[in-house]
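Consider the tokenized backbone below.
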């Protein structure tokens, strides 16, 4: 029996801040600098991040990285 791939959940801001330990201002500063994955638009007033992007950043928080997601944004 093969294991099913885990769905790529969308994490909200509060969860991203808790997982990364970053403050809100530091998070947005890193996004602007291109060293943190960019958020995705969920609805008019709602944003989130792909869990896989956050996990990849946590494994290798490269300060010189592009911070762009390989996952298509809708």
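A designed sequence for it:
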């Amino acid at each position: 029996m093969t294991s099913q791939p885990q769905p790529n959940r969308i994490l909200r801001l509060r969860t991203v801040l808790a997982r990364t330990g970053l403050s809100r201002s530091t998070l947005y500063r890193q996004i602007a600098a291109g060293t943190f994955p960019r958020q995705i638009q969920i609805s008019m007033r709602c944003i989130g991040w792909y869990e896989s992007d956050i996990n990849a950043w946590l494994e290798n928080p490269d300060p010189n990285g592009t911070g762009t997601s390989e996952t298509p944004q809708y």
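The radius of gyration is 13 Å.
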